[in-house]
Structure formats: C-alpha cells, structure tokens
Design a protein that fits this description.
heterodimer, A: 363 residues, mainly alpha, ABC transporter involved in vitamin B12 uptake, BtuC, three-stranded antiparallel beta sheet, two-stranded antiparallel sheet, B: 288 residues, 11 helices, 2 strands
Chain lengths: 363, 288
C-alpha cells in the first residue's frame, strides 16, 4: 500500500479567487488614480457607486447573513449625517473628524434601538426598524439649531477647507471645491475597500461560520454553543457604525440636509435592497454587480422619474420570485466561479491528495 | 378638565381608524404568518379607487366604497394566489422583500396616475356634522369610523368562530399540512383571507380619505400605525388591536394638544413604552 499521508487541511481559496485578488488589487489602484484622468462629474458618479456599494454590503450582511431584515437603515444614514452636521456646525469640528464622530454616534444610537427591536421577531423586526427610523426623523426635525423640519446647510467653506483638500488641490492643480470632491471620493473608496475586507474577513472567521450556522438553523446552532443573539447584536452595531460613516460622508458631499431627505426610506433603503436583491443576496459579489446594474439603469432611465422606481420595484419582485439568488447567483450556479469564496473545503488526508470533501454549504 | 376629556374622546375615536388599518394586517398575519409591507399602500390605493369612483361616476362615497370592495377583494385574491403564495415558507426574506417591492410599485404607480397632489373624498355636510355630548363635541365622521371598526371586528370574530370558512382559516393557521389532508386547499384559503383583508382595507380607505387629505406617499406611515396597534394589542387578538389603536390615537391626540408637531412622535413613543414594559402586548393570546 502506498499511502501518501498529507495532513488534512481546510481551505476556502479557489483558483478564481486567487486570480481575482490580483485583479481586485489592480482595480483598486486604478480607482485610486482615477481622479487624475477623469472629469469631476465622473468622480461624483464613482462616489455615488461606492457609497451605494457600502450601504448595500452592510444591508447584505444584516439581511443575507445575520437574518436581520431591516427596512430602517435610513435611521443610521440620517443620524450619521445629522451627527456630522452637529459636529461641524455646533462643535466646529473639521468635516473629516466629524465623519468619524458620526460613525461612533450611529453605533451609540444602535445600542438602545437594538435593545428595543431585538424584542421583535422575524418579520416584525423589519417594521420595528422602520419605526426606529421614523422616530429618529421626527425627533431630529425638532432640533432647531440644525434647522428643524426644513433642514440646514454646512457653513460656506467648511468642506472646501477640510483636511487634505488644500494639499490635494495643490498636488493635482485643482480648485478647492473640486479637490474636496476628490477627498470625499478617496474616503468613499477607502470605506468601500475596508467594508468589503471586513465582511470577507468576518465571514471567513469562526464568527462567520457561526453566523451561517445561525442563518441555516438557529436552534441547531444554539445547541452546539453558538450565541446567536450576541452575534446578531455585533453585526447590528457594526453595520450601524459603517452606515453612519457613509451617511456622514454622503452629506459632506451634499452639504445640505433636511430630515425628509436624510431619513428617506426610498433613497437609503429601497434602492439598497434592490441593489442587493438584483445582484444576489447572501454573496459579497452580488451587491457589487447590483450596484453596477443600478448605476447603468439610473444613467439610462433616471429621467423617467417614478416610472424608473416603479420598474425597479417590478424587477426586484421578479428576481425575488424567479431567481432568488440574483444575477450573481445565476452566474455562479452555471460557472462555479466565486471571487470571494467563504465555503470551507476539506483537502488532503491519506491516499489521494486530490480528493476533496465538501464542507457544509456555507455561502 | 374639559379639554382632557375632549383629548381622550377624540383620541379614542382616532384609534378606531388605526384599528381599521390594523385589522387587515392582523388577519393576514394570523392566518398565513405573512407581514405585508405594502398594506399601507394598498389602503391608499383603495382610497384613490374610491376617489375615482366618486369623481368620475358621481357616486356617493359610501356607495363608491361598496363598489370598490369587490374590486379590492378580487385584487387581493389575485395578488395572494399569483404572487404572495409563491413566497410563503420558512424563510421570511421573500415575502418581506416582495411586499416591500410592491409598496414601491404601488406608490410610484399612484404618483404617475394621480400626481403628488393632496386629495380628499368629499362627504358633503357629513364632514362638519357633529353631536354635542355634555361638554364634548363629537364629529359624526370620527364616530362612524369608530363604530365601523367595532363592526368590522365583531364581523371578523363571527366569521372566524361561527362559520365553516372561519374554521378552515383557523385550521390552516394551526397546521397547514393537516388542514390540507382534511380537504382544505391552503392556497385558496390564503387567497380568500387576503381578499377579505382587502375588503377591510377598503372600509379603512373610505374613512382615511373622508377624514383627512391623502397623497400617494402616505402609505408607509399607515402601515406603521397599523403595526403598532397590532403589537400593542398583542398578536392574535382583534379586540386587543382595537385597544392598541386607541392607545396610539390617545397618545397622538395628547401629543398634538401639547404641541401640534409632536402628534406623530407621541404615538410612536407610546408604542416604544408599551413594548418595553409589556413585550407581548397588552392582551396577548394564550398561545403564541
């Protein structure tokens, strides 16, 4: 008997994912250098894509992995945006410092709201999260120093003079307003890369495995010692932090806030849900594909106003009914390609080094 | 003192409207565990349907609601049997996302067909008619709303506990598979239930449109009031839902009496308070 005993090992990387990591690194570098070559309008479009991508990744982590179907993420976008305005206008912080402050503020808000809506099970969690967003909107509409129900603007020059804008302007030879756009874009890029990196790391860790176990069967997962509630709380707080950061960043760029816009369920939750559903829920690739599809649709059909949103709703419903794993799911099922593999595969062992045993389907 | 009694009376009557919003939601959830995120938008859709019947055909609003009810029943039937039944299962994601999409579709469809203008269903002299009881003036429309809510709840309870259809509803709710073995077709039971919920929605829509202005975007807020009423009352109890509606109504009227801007916020805060103190609601049914 010729037994070649190689050690058992658990792997999740695939050839496609190794190739993709190189492509992803090149794409990131290209994106970093993009403001040197493209117009200001194109930079703003990329900013939109990246911020939507971060929101979509957060919602996907909540709904697709942690089973927390929230339709109230606008609570954290709006609260983050308002915290940034409060930081700049009331505390005289630099907008960039105020963005960090906003992420913390949103995470702090998530502690009491989480305590509250975790009392609601399943589908009722969804409406509970919406109630939270409504309460936040109505409460902030009462905050007179920030304009009450009509909202307010950032003081003139606050964004133009923010950290880094002058240096970038000098370096790239841009006017300060344009340089501020580039700084916002780079922050969005950094946030998108960090968010995807964080989610990928989380899902490949022990906690990620536990999360998938809870999603697939909560009772069984708990019986083997997974603390489902703690995991869900962690995901809820972490996504609130990131969503607050994005909200603040978006509103540094907009420079004008009102409660109805900052807590808009259509802008910050409906589009995000359609991105994730159309792209493919429960995968990291899905939201990336979805946000590209959304951008192309928006670019082509945005002039049609409510017809556009109506069509997007119909597409979302059709995808959910007939291809619940979205466009990426259709693609991955046919090709088996995964760019962000999180399924664990057991390789190695005696006899035959090529034999593989599939781990629990996970992802 | 007078104003306090007035606040409570007006609040209770407003609670009747919220109970009407909530009854349909409660019915559908009770039978098929489906939370319809488009419920509020369906109420607004029914209000526009009644408005169209009133303005185009010159019908009396109450007659228009009678005409609209079977149309909404049919819509509910088709919606459930053709779309929502496909989403039912252990996973809560498909029904939530499909009904959320539906909510966006209805809102934007209404925006395209009726514009964003604020509308009202005119009921002529009924709008301002009122009765004076002691020191409190009671509007006839709010009173009719409350009495309709009571009538709807009595009617639904009779339907549930006194008829063969109600028995089938309860059986399917308890155990879909066994009910199927007994010759009940769950799909048709669900479609019928949603159809009946849409009839209740039509009644709610009549009072929504006759009492205040409405536009295509107000649906989600109605869904939230309905949901709060159901949770405050405790799942599974229609009378509890009425009590929940009354709690929201009184809280809103009291908030508005202090500062008109606080009306809606006060209702939400009452809901948060109840959920923190009594997580299972005021009148939880014996079994969960």
């Amino acid at each position: 008997m010729d037994i070649t005993a190689t050690a058992w090992r658990v792997e999740s990387r695939t050839r496609a994912s190794n190739m993709f990591s190189i492509v992803a690194a090149i794409l990131t570098l290209l994106a970093l250098a993009a403001p040197l070559f493209i117009s200001r309008g194109a930079v703003q479009n990329l900013f939109f894509i990246l911020t939507m991508l971060v929101l979509a990744q957060c919602w996907n982590l909540l709904a697709g992995y942690a089973g927390l179907v929230s339709v109230g993420q606008q609570a954290f976008v709006g609260f983050g945006a308002y915290a940034m305005f409060a930081g700049v206008i009331l505390l005289r912080l630099d907008p960039i410092a105020a963005i960090l402050f906003s992420g913390l503020a949103a995470a702090l808000l998530a502690i009491p709201t989480g305590y509250f809506i975790f009392r609601l099970q399943g589908a009722y969690f969804a409406i509970g999260s919406w109630v939270v967003a409504e309460i936040a909107r109505l409460a902030l509409a009462q905050w007179k120093p920030l304009g009450g129900g009509t909202g307010t603007s950032l003081p003139g020059g606050a964004v133009r003079d923010m950290w880094g804008a002058a240096a970038v302007g000098k370096l790239l030879g841009m006017r300060p307003v344009q340089a501020a756009d580039v700084v916002c874009y780079w922050l969005a890029l950094a946030l998108a890369v960090a968010t995807i990196g964080f989610i990928y790391w989380l899902l490949r860790s022990r906690q990620g495995l536990a999360l998938a176990a809870v999603r697939d069967n909560q009772e069984t997962a708990r019986s083997v010692g997974v603390d489902a509630r703690r995991l869900k709380t962690f995901v809820y707080l972490a996504t609130a932090f990131v969503t607050g950061l994005v909200g603040a960043l978006i509103y540094v760029q907009k420079a004008r806030i009102s409660p109805d816009a900052a807590f808009s369920v259509v802008d910050w939750t409906a589009y995000v849900i359609f991105v994730v559903v159309i792209g493919g829920i429960g995968t990291i690739e899905g939201p990336i594909l979805g946000v590209i599809v959304l951008f192309l649709l928006r670019d082509t059909f945005a002039d049609y106003g409510s017809w556009y949103l109506l069509a997007l709703g119909l597409i979302g419903i059709a995808v959910m009914l007939f291809a619940p794993r979205g466009l990426w799911g259709l693609f991955a099922d046919r090709t088996g390609i995964q760019f962000f593999p999180i399924r664990r595969t057991l390789r190695g062992g005696p006899e035959c080094a090529t034999k593989t045993i599939e781990g629990a389907t996970h992802g | 003192m007078t104003s306090l009694i007035d606040v409570v009376v007006q609040g209770v009557l407003l609670g009747g409207l919220y109970a009407l919003f909530a009854a349909g939601l409660s019915l559908v959830f009770g039978i098929m565990r489906l939370v319809n995120l488009a419920h509020g938008d369906l109420i607004v859709l029914a209000a526009f349907l009644i408005l169209a019947l009133v303005t185009k055909l010159g019908l009396n609003p109450f007659v228009a609601a009678l005409v609209a009810a079977p149309i909404m029943f049919a819509l509910g039937w088709v919606l459930q049997s053709q779309v929502l039944n496909r989403t039912l299962g252990p996973d809560i994601l498909p029904p939530l996302l499909v009904t959320f999409g539906l909510s966006i579709v209805i809102q934007n469809g209404l925006l395209e067909s009726f514009s964003a203008d604020s509308r009202r269903i005119s009921t002529g002299s009924l709008e301002t008619a009122s009765l004076t009881l002691g020191s409190v003036d009671i509007g006839v429309m709010p009173l009719l709303t409350f009495l309709s809510a009571v009538a709807v709840i009595v009617g639904l309870n009779q339907l549930f506990y006194r008829t063969a259809l109600g028995r089938a509803f309860r059986a399917t709710s308890d155990d879909r598979v066994t009910a199927g073995l007994m010759g009940i077709r769950p799909d048709r039971i669900f479609a019928t239930a949603t159809g009946i919920a849409m009839v209740v929605v039509t009644i709610a829509a009549l009072y929504l449109g006759a009492r205040a202005n409405f536009d295509p975007t107000i649906g989600p807020a109605r869904l939230i009031y309905a949901f709060e009423a159901v949770i405050i009352g405790g799942l599974g109890s229609l009378w509890g839902t009425l009590a929940g509606g009354v709690v929201i109504g009184v809280a809103q009227t009291a908030g508005a009496a202090v500062n008109p801007e606080w009306q809606i916020l006060a209702g939400h805060l009452a809901f948060v308070l109840v959920l923190l103190l009594r997580p299972r609601g005021l009148f939880p049914s014996a079994v969960n």
